[in-house]
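Figure 2 data, in text form.
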Amino acid sequence: MSVQHENMEIFLKGLWKDNPVFVMLLGMCPVLAVTNSLMNGIAMGLASTFVLFSSSTLISILKNIIPKQVRIATYIVIIATFVTVVDYLIQAISLDLYKALGAFIQLIVVNCIILGRAEAFASKNSVSKSMLDALGMGVGFTIALCCLGGTRELLGSGSLLGFSILGESYEPWAIMILPPGGFFVLGAWLLLFAALKERKAKGEVA
């Protein structure tokens, strides 16, 4: 396998094969809590991607310096540092968005996707591979949040990013922007993703 092909595989696995939401079912708290609109999904996805990319890169650089006995505590300190940066950035950009995301910005610190990639990949691989892995996982997570947020906002209010899509005659499904709607939409996307993966697998076998 060529280096270029290997790097592409590392990046793409987060989008499809090992998608953190649709395959590994990680980070369910923000996935279900903040995805009542597309904008919230985009913001949380980008924030998580920034923290994942930055922390994985730094952890990969420092992997030979960090003592094994305190590696998890060190990873959390590094992740928390970047989460603080994101927290202040979002406050500076939009207070309304900051209030909409609530405590889930700070909870990125304990997001199992970020800590898991730090322990399972960044601490064992080169900086370039760790960056690609983090970027792929982050983009995959963002795509999943956008899928859920977009679906819930469209069905729940008939709009996307505040712009009317389905018109005034559309009767919104109020449940979609409430907590139960998150479970319904997530279940539907999981079924669709599983069906697509099964169809692809059958095509490759054939």
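Caption note: The chain has eight helices and two strands.
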